[in-house]
């Protein structure tokens, strides 16, 4: 299998065209070389590590604290000045 059918989709961006074309290229090369059995190992060494890394970030990216930051001082987690006794530096 190759492309989207094989699950070669970036879990952060949802992009899959690059991986579809790359996996098709790897399969074509394996077939031309008369060694289709090498396709799986070619995928594992070519771009699968990239997808595995992206997968490890996807949950934090969408549901965790990947993009959140804590501003120092009288600011909330969105970087907005809190109400109360806090004074904005002029």
List the helices and strands and how they pair.
Blueprint lengths: L16 H16 L6 H8 L1 H16 L27
What does this protein look like?
- The chain is an all-alpha fold and 90 residues long.
- It has one domain.
- It is 44% helix and 0% strand.
- The longest helix has 16 residues, at 17-32.
- The chain starts with 16 loop residues before the first helix and ends in a 27-residue tail after the last helix.
- The mean pLDDT is 79.
Distance between the termini: 61 Å
Residue share in β-strands: under 5%
Number of domains: 1
Dominant shape? elongated
Low-confidence stretches: none
Question: How many β strands by DSSP?
Answer: 0
Helix content range of the residues, please? 40-55%
Major sheet summary line:
none
Compact overview of the structure:
By secondary structure, this protein is mainly alpha-helical.
Defining key terms:
3 helices, 90 residues, mainly alpha
């Amino acid at each position: 299998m190759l492309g989207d059918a094989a699950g070669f989709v970036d879990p952060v961006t949802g992009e899959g065209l690059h991986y579809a074309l790359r996996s098709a290229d790897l399969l074509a090369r394996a077939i031309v070389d008369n060694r289709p059995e090498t396709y799986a190992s070619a995928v594992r060494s070519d771009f699968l590590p990239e997808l595995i890394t992206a997968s490890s970030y996807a949950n934090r990216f969408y549901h965790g604290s990947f993009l959140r930051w804590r501003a120092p001082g009288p600011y909330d987690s969105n970087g907005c000045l809190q109400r109360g006794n806090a004074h904005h530096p002029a």
